[in-house]
Amino acid sequence: MHITSYFAKDLFRGKTVFITGGSSGINLGIARNFAALGANLSIVGRSQEKLAAATAELKAIGAHVVAHSADVRDYPALEKALQETNTALGPVHTLICGAAGNFPCPAADLSPNGFKSVIDIDLLGSFHACRAGFAQLRETQGNIIFISAGMAFMPYAFQAHVGAAKAGIDNLMRNLALEWGPFGIRCNSIVPGPIEGTEGVRRLVPEGSGDLLRKAIPLGRFGTPDDIGQLSVFLASPLASYITGTVIVADGGQNLPGSGAWTQLIATEIAKASR
Ligand code: NAP
Ligand code: COA
Question: I need a surface site. Which of 18, 44, 97, 133 has the fewest CB within 10 A?
């Protein structure tokens, strides 16, 4: 696969990038962009099959890759993955907290365990990765990128669990930027808009309504995994050496008219499903 890059080809040569949820979708797109600039990749996910496919793809770009089948809710498993990463590839320079779970569900129907599952994967999982990665990031004076979502700052119907989790992530990010800045560690969040071809869009955009939603986006299109990959390499690069504690929105302006168009569509779908 060809990746257009505007950065020096060896920008991350010898550097280790650890990505939770790196086996598919946006996070795999991020991994590809780092691999194209010489980085070594360590990816975490639950499905062995997805990890194997992603590993093959990243190796074909030329990266050294290690893959760990682990659940981000399991702190010892993440600690082990980070230790093995250090041994195999060297200490982590960039940590991407990208693993997440999502499904649309009216709050009145959402079980406490459904709410907890998303909080545990997104928020607790992000803290686990940061906590277990701290010593290595201190050693490299590295950086952390959290993959947030628009629900963190704007309510979307049937996304109470996701909004709470992602808002928590952005606040965790700012807190760590404050506490870990003195160690030379930068922390930032990226808010992707709807990204073409991903599981998130498959779950949240009712079939056949993509065009309507695209029209509601000022730039007139959904994003691509490379849009988020390019932003990630910028944030991890020396070009961003004074940027920390920020939430960067890359959504084609989707948040500007609000969540109304999406809410209307998803409300219709949920009503159909419960008939
Ligand atoms: P995706 O392909 O399903 O990515 C999620 C990844 O996380 C998968 O690799 C998944 O692999 C892994 N994962 C899920 N639960 C896990 C767990 N408990 N432990 C370890 N790994 C776990 O979905 P995506 O749409 O590309 O989303 C990627 C990120 O972008 C997420 O943080 C999402 O919230 C964010 N985002 C997406 C969009 C969008 O339009 N797609 C918009 C805004 C934000 P396994 O299932 O094999 O574990
Ligand atoms: N609607 C309502 N509740 C749901 C649901 C849905 N579509 N899917 C799961 N839940 C509830 C379950 O009923 C369960 O609650 P209960 O015990 O009270 O019945 C709870 O959530 C946990 O479900 P389970 O399937 O055991 O969770 P898991 O830990 O195996 O999986 C999910 C986590 C549910 C988030 C799953 O969708 C997942 O693995 N997602 C990862 C990929 C993804 O979401 N990608 C998009 C990222 S934007």
Answer: 133
Angle between helices 112-119 and 160-180 (to 10 degrees): 30
Q: pLDDT tens for residues 14-42?
A: 999 999 999 999 999 999 999 999 999 99
Taking all residues of the chain, what is their mean pLDDT, rounded to a whole number? 97
* Residue 2 belongs to a domain: no
Cβ of 205 below 6 Å from ligand 2: no
Q: How far is the CA of 17 from the centre of ligand 1 (A)?
A: 17
Q: Minimum-distance ligand to the CA of 115?
A: 2
Residue nearest to atom 11 of ligand 1 (CA): 45
Question: H helices within the chain, ranges in order?
Answer: 25-35, 48-61, 75-89, 112-119, 125-140, 160-180, 199-204, 210-215, 225-236, 260-274
> CATH number for the domain including 227?
3.40.50.720
Q: Assign 4 a pLDDT band (cuts: 50, 70, 90).
A: confident
**Sheet-wide strand order for 40-45:** 65-69, 40-45, 16-20, 92-97, 143-147, 186-192, 246-250
The pTM of the full predicted model, rounded to 2 decimals, is 0.98
- pLDDT at residue 167 in the model: 99
In which band, very low, low, confident or very high, does the pLDDT at 2 lie, cut at 50, 70 and 90? confident
**Considering its fold, how many domains does the chain have in total?**
1
On the CB side of 159, CA atoms within 13 Å amount to 25
C-beta of 25 in contact with ligand 1 (< 6 A): yes
Q: What is the distance in A from the centroid of ligand 1 to the CA of 182?
A: 31
